[in-house]
Write a structure and sequence with these properties.
Strand content: under 5%
Distance between the termini: 36 Å
Domain HTH CENPB-type: 56-104
Radius of gyration: 18 Å
CATH class of the largest domain: Mainly Alpha
Largest sheet: none
Shape: elongated
Biased composition (Polar residues): 45-55
Protein name: HTH CENPB-type domain-containing protein
Number of strands: 0
Number of domains: 2
CATH topology of the largest domain: Arc Repressor Mutant, subunit A
Region (Disordered): 45-65
Keywords: DNA-binding, Nucleus
Length: 104
Amino acid sequence: MARTTDPDVPAHRGVPLANDHKMVADGVSVNKAAEACGINRSTLQGRVKGSTTPREAQKSRQKLSDVQEKRLRDWIIVQADLGCPVSHQQVREFARLFKSKYRY
């Protein structure tokens, strides 16, 4: 099965949810469906049972919105590409300034 090539989607999350659910609904065991989709058995079992992902479960604790987080990530990558990698302190300060200036 082909995975998505979106760099924002981790490899283990590149399998469309509908396909793995469909396999289980069609009678394929969770173990075999997970192996065919290239994901962990417990991940598929959680999906079938409707569990939330760790990211979704912690969403209320995030300090930045998804848009702000993506922009911060893009800034970090640009700085590294320019040969000026940023420190943890710089990331924290930029995030603080970014959060106060742009409210999404």
